[in-house]
Amino acid sequence: MANCGDSGRAEPLRLNVNGRDVAVAASRQASLLHLLRNDLGLNGPKYGCGLGQCGACTVHVDGTAARACVIPAHGMAGRRITTLEGLAGQASAAGSLVRACAAPGAGPARDWHPVQAAFEEAQAAQCGYCLNGMVMQAAALLAREPQPSEARIRAELSGNLCRCGTHVEILRAVTLAAQRMAEAPAP
Prior knowledge:
Elements: E1 2-4, E2 10-17, E3 20-27, H1 32-39, E4 58-61, E5 64-67, E6 80-82, H2 84-93, H3 97-100, H4 114-121, H5 131-144, H6 150-157, H7 167-183
Parallel strand pairs: 1-3, 2-6
Antiparallel strand pairs: 2-3, 4-5, 4-6
């Protein structure tokens, strides 16, 4: 059992992270972000503001985008958590979607979620700090709404801060991912 949290008595916690059941010992004060990064070594979610306002720590909780920095780890008992590292596994479970959504002629296929592949193709990252939140939020949007308008994409990503100014490329990446996912053969 991993040990999570710097203060307080550690208590057992079981949850599913990226399709794998895990058991940890976590203090009641530990956030989900702390558990993911410090105890499970999953560094996709980033610590940004610590207030749930910047989006850098976004993960999926039972398929819904959520801010890991403000979620108590113990509140996630029995829940299904997906981080950036596990996102491709979600798409792979749906069949050949990952490979079908790869850019034509882009070289060897990576086991990435279509949103991750589109972000690379659209060159939608600069420093990369916001990338986790942008990708996770976009993937949650496309799971709910496969063909969103640009206005809907903008609204969905409005709570994710990017200080480098790659907003145009990010919008292009989400639109590209939606197109590729729509064109992919059904599993």
